[in-house]
Amino acid sequence: MGLTCRQCGSSLHDRSKFCPKCGARVSGSGPLVSTVAVAEREEAETEAFDLESAPSPPREFEAPRGQALDYERADFGQRLGAFLFDLLLFLIVLMSATFLLSSYSERSIVSSNAMLVAFYCVAFLLFGFNFILLAGRTGQTVGKRLVGIRIVKVDHAPAGYMSVVLRHVVGYLLSTVGFFLGFVWIVWDSRNQGWHDKIARTIVVLAR
Q: Hey, which of 85, 132, 144, 186 would disulfide with 140, CB 3.0 to 4.6 Å?
């Protein structure tokens, strides 16, 4: 095993008694150290220097006290209540439209194709106003506003018109398959998402 002078660091022969460079005595308890020990000491010093000079890792974001990092998701009961409010509004408006059309024509709306077209137009406009215009603009239908819940994207960005169209037109249709299984899916889903939520990549949270 090669030796190194502790005085100047020069390499020494195993039988050397004096350092040929600095003349230090290396016999007995003189200043000698193995090259392996020197290498290990230098490596340890290098690692210590790297740890001290390395930039500290960024601290994880901490929410202010009392403020949660994530929105609290609405449960099945809250979402069902909002849907029933929307359904009630839908029925009230359609029944009022039916009464007005019947009173105006003095006959049943099913007896006239024009009255049926007018009835379906009212239903279409109501659906578009509540589930597309209001939901796309604020994330809330009338029912969701009354309950205090809101539709947002999975990254908590505003839902927007494209997401609510996909959610309420395509998603609602698919969620009715299998006796409304897509809506009931909310009960056991880990993120409280129905099929329509998964299609549109949305979640429903408590409004703040």
A: 144
Residue with tokens 């929410």: 63
Q: Would you state the structure tokens that stand for residue 142, as one six-digit string?
A: 């009338």
Cα 44 to Cα 2: distance, rounded to the nearest angstrom = 20
Do 112 and 144 have their domain in common?
yes
78, two tokens = 């809250």
Note the pLDDT of residue 55: 57
Rounded to the nearest angstrom, the gap between the alpha carbon of residue 24 and the centroid of all alpha carbons in its chain is: 69
Q: Domain check: are 86 and 144 in the same one?
A: yes
Domain that holds residue 7: 3-53
- Block means of pLDDT (10 residues each) for the chain, 208 residues, are 65 64 57 49 62 52 44 92 96 91 78 84 95 96 96 94 96 91 94 95 92
> Are the C-beta atoms of residues 139 and 158 closer than 8 Å to each other?
yes
Q: How far apart are CA 21 and CA 112, in angstroms?
A: 117
